Amino acid sequence: MRRLALIAACFAFAAGARAAEPAHFADADNETLVMHGLDIYSQRCAGCHGRRLEGQALWQLRDQYLGRRAPPHDSTGHTWQHSDDDLFAMTKDGRFPQAPKDVVSYMPAFDKSLGDDDILAVLAFIKSRWPTGIRASQSMLNPGFKGMPKDADRVDWTLPPNCTASFQRWGLSQPK
Ligand code: HEC
Question: How many CA atoms lie within 13 A of 89 on its CB side?
């Protein structure tokens, strides 16, 4: 009887672990994928987001003619403050799923010109450029902390000074 309960518990645990998978995951440890992503990034994203992922000049500003400029994808921007599922949707549809409908985004939708695999490759490339602390912080936004860097227990790293990502993940309001 006890063994049955144990088996049932194992199944329940396995089902739970499966449920904790993001719908889309960009694997920054897969070098082939990252190299493919670099190709796509150079051709399709670098023109706006910068060759070195640095974003457009004065990207924080929003003006009446140009609207919002392309933010950096490196650790100085806020790409890492979004889950893989949200980054996937942003690249595919040109907007975050939770963005209000009347908000205009100047990010093009790539749903017609890039396949889902290409989108994951380019996101894997972007993620592969982040330092361990940024990668760890972003992985906490994914179900099951998917994408936690493999060497997180071996190298010295710190979470970014602004831990918004972790607070969002845990559904807590940020300390004032
Ligand atoms: C024509 C210029 C342009 C191109 C090309 C472009 N983007 Fe963007 N992207 C933007 C702008 C502008 C924003 C900001 C949108 C907003 O805040 O409404 C943005 C935002 C984003 C965001 C959200 C970042 C954040 O932190 O909010 C992601 C992710 C993104 N782009 C990925 C990509 C990828 C991947 C490519 C290439 C496949 C790409 N973009 C190509 C202009 C561009």
Answer: 13
CB atoms within 10 A of CB 145: 14
Name residues contacting ligand 1 (CB within 6 A).
Answer: 44-45, 47-49, 68-71, 77-79, 82, 87, 90-91, 105-108, 110, 122
Cα separations (Å) of 151 from 37, 51, 91, 157, 160? 22, 27, 28, 10, 17
Burial code of 125-141, b = ≥16 C-beta within 10 A, e = fewer?
bbbbbbbbbbbbbbbbb
Q: Tens of pLDDT along 13-64?
A: 455 455 588 999 999 999 999 999 999 999 999 999 999 999 999 888 877 7
Distance 143 CA to ligand 1 centre (A): 23
CA distance 68 to 104: 9
Residue nearest (by alpha carbon) to ligand 1 atom 7: 107
